[in-house]
Every structure is written in structure tokens, then in C-alpha cells.
Amino acid sequence: MDTKNFKVNNEKSLVEWIGRKVTGAHNGTIEVKEGTFAFENNNLLSGKFVINTKSIKILDIEDAETNAQFAGHLASDDFFNSDQFPESVFEITHAEPGDNNNYNVTGNLTIKGITHPVDAILQIVKTDNVAVLDAKIVIDRTKFNIKFRSANFFTNLGDTLIYNNFDLNVHLVAEAI
After folding, report:
1. Assigned fold of 3-17+26-142+168-176
2. Is 67 helix (H, G, I), strand (E, B) or coil?
3. Contact 167/18 with Cβ under 8 angstroms?
4. Which of 6, 117, 132, 150 is the most buried (most CB within 10 A)?
5. 62-103: pLDDT as tens digits
């Protein structure tokens, strides 16, 4: 058995987010705090990464005051409650190799201290010393007690409705340790 461990380089890694509402969408970035992955005989064995919820940035709102107000709202208890829960974690519980460097992964996602299983396709391009991991993870925010303007919990929202699912486009660069 040849096991090799990799550590995420947070300077080279990033998570992009997209949240949608009736009238459009917002997008931005979240910093990756840390992560590790293990490969056995060149197959993904395990992995985990942590994002810093205090680092959420909004890229599509140019007005500084509006941007800061929105960022503050995302950090509030209506959304991620970043002061109480400064980290969100994804830990792989199962990885099944597929075609074209893809893995079907199941993992436990923890947001606001609430954990639920999430499925995703993880693409990995790996050399001996570097592994680049990319995935799109679709999350139902209501499972993590993020209910603000959700049709599941509120009526008559009209064009203020925010859709329950949001996307995380994860790009991780991990280096052999």
C-alpha cells in the first residue's frame, strides 16, 4: 500500500459561490483555511477542507456601502452567523473513482454547526507532488438553518424570494507532504 498525503495550499485555493433569487444572482468568493487529502495507490482515500466564513466577499456589487451592508448581512444569523461559526467543513466519507479523473464523493458538510451528507463529483488532476481538486457542490441552505426569504418558510415573498440552493465551486491546490 502506497499512501501519500497532501496539504491544501490556501494561497492557491479558492471557493467561489453563487446564490440566486427571483430577480437575478449574486456571486463572490470564500477563502479556504486549510485542508488535507490522502491517496492510496493513486486513488483518493480521504479528504477534508475548511473554509473561513468570515472571508465571504461579494464580487458583483460595486458600490462599497451596499457591498459592505450585504457582506454584513451574509455574516449575520440570517445566513452564516460567522462570529459564532467562523468555519464550515467538508469531509469526504466515501470516494468512488470514475472516468476522466472524476470521483463520485459523499461527504459530511457542516455549516452553522449543522452537518448533512452531500454528494458531489470531484475532479482530480494529480502528479507526484501536486493534486488539483475541483468540484461544484450544490447546497440546500435550508438544511443548515439558513431560512431568510425561503419559500419553504415564508409566503408572499414575490420578487424578494431567494432560492434555497446555492453553488460552491471549489478549487483546491494541494501539495505533497
Report:
1. Lipocalin (2.40.128)
2. helix
3. yes
4. 6
5. 999 999 999 999 999 889 999 999 999 999 999 999 999 999
Beta bridge partners of 91: 48, 108
Distance, in Å, from the CA atom of 2 to the CA atom of 125, rounded to the nearest integer, reads 18
Strands 130-140 and 57-58: unpaired
Contact 106, 93 (CB under 8 A): yes
Q: What is the pTM of this model?
A: 0.91
Half-sphere exposure of 69 (CA within 13 A, CB side): 6
Of 127, 120, 107, 26, nearest in space to 74 by CA:
26
- Three-state SS for 155? coil
Q: How confident is the model at residue 157 (pLDDT cuts 50, 70, 90)?
A: low
Cβ distance 97 to 43 under 8 Å?
yes
Give dist(CA 81, CA 85) in Å, integer: 6
Q: Where are the domains of the chain?
A: 3-17+26-142+168-176
Q: pLDDT tens across 101-121, in order?
A: 999 999 999 999 999 999 999
